[in-house]
Amino acid sequence: MDDALLWLAPSATCTEPEPTAVTRPSAERSAGVYDGLLVEVAPAHHVARDQLRSPAYRARSLAPLIPHRGVLVRFSAVWGHTGGRPPVRVSVAMP
Predict the structure, then answer these.
(1) Do the Cβ atoms of 73 and 92 come closer than 8 Å?
(2) What's the pLDDT at 24?
(3) Contact indicator for 39, 21 with CB cutoff of 8 Å
(4) In angstroms, rounded to a whole number, what is the distance separating the alpha carbons of residues 14 and 12?
(5) How far is 64 from 47, CA to CA, in rounded Å?
């Protein structure tokens, strides 16, 4: 029965690049936000707009802000699954 679902496992050859936070001087970062190239996913944490096109990308964009074993909750979790406007504040629950 385990082999029946094997085709659903992610392929090792099909990996998505990790989104990277933009660490540019504030003038360049502001210009990128103004031009629509960068999105502020959390206060002072910007990511390129094209790196937010899937739930995996959105979750990875917030990963540096989440403590070990933390879980996104509330609007942060909704945004991670559905997209739209990024959360104003990242909400995290700890087990």
Answers:
(1) yes
(2) 54
(3) no
(4) 6
(5) 12
